[in-house]
């Protein structure tokens, strides 16, 4: 798909906390801001935690170029690379962006977080890679895993998404993309009015399992916080803007394991099972002459008109009206069945195919955080390009006005200096000195 020049921005703020064994918890927080984005992928190398009760900020995620073991993973097919700086507190890091198109080198100081901005001539799928360093993986075994990130989409999009992915093992950064295996995926997916879904996918034994529930995401232009909490008892909570939207268990809301209990397909309803809630009253007897009650009777108030002529008009008959004593076909009244046992259902039995896994909630040892951002709208890129040009024109206008102001001030100062030099007072030529 060919598109106009597109501006891509993504802000990333990472930190996670590993508490003590009594209330062990792994906490991962990311912040992402899109305005708007082409198809893109971001890969961040995670620095693992080994000691409890430590708080690691973003500098533990972004990889410094000062370290001797830091290295850049270069893509052979890309000749151009963007290098820009990420400022985190007093630390400064370098990020390399590789793309098939000619890249633009960014020279700007950024606040804490990660900012990416590129201009593309056509839609593509770039790989955004960080310098990486040696570190060990970490696991959520016997710990509560909390993944949270904020997302703001500044423009209306018809088709796009932004996902957080946690990856395990070795990831070839040269080939990192949408098909790269992952252990966890979480984020909104919007495509038209019909699809506004929040993806929540867990990996188990190399296979991805999406949640069975239909989760809805936010679609406005405000910032929203998405939080996923996975506990050691395999229960989970999903929060949006700190409000719980879903709660459940991995055993029931994912088709990872067979169900613990199933209905006995071989069971049959007993012959003496009475599932009639109401029955006819056997003691009630039909009254005598009930069947002879007519359905309609003649109207006693109806009288023969005086102008009625039987020879010309025929024999006059009064009109018929419903009989108030007629109650319809006789039926016995319904009473509660004293032998009612309820609706019969097949009993639940233990599923012979179920094998419990106490580590069902445990993901593969995590080492990478990936951010996948994609958007397939040419109009969004063109709108971003128009905004960029308008901003540049406004900055140029302000710079021009500021230059004119300074020029006028310099001319005024120079004129004042020339006037002062021409009419300044020379003390040795003053005739009052001779008096």
TrEMBL record:
Annotated TM spans: 12-32
Keyword Nucleotide-binding on entry: no
Entry GO CC: endoplasmic reticulum lumen; endoplasmic reticulum membrane; ribonucleoprotein complex; ribosome
A biological process from GO: translation
A GO term, aspect molecular function: unfolded protein binding
Pfam families on file: Calreticulin, Ribosomal_L38e
Biased composition (Basic and acidic residues): 283-307
Record localization: Endoplasmic reticulum lumen
Family membership noted in the UniProt record: Belongs to the calreticulin family.
Disulphide connectivity of cysteines: 159-191
Region (Disordered): 273-320, 382-419
Keywords: Calcium, Chaperone, Disulfide bond, Endoplasmic reticulum, Lectin, Membrane, Metal-binding, Repeat, Ribonucleoprotein, Ribosomal protein, Signal, Transmembrane, Transmembrane helix, Zinc
Organism the protein comes from: Panicum miliaceum
Protein name: Calreticulin-3-like
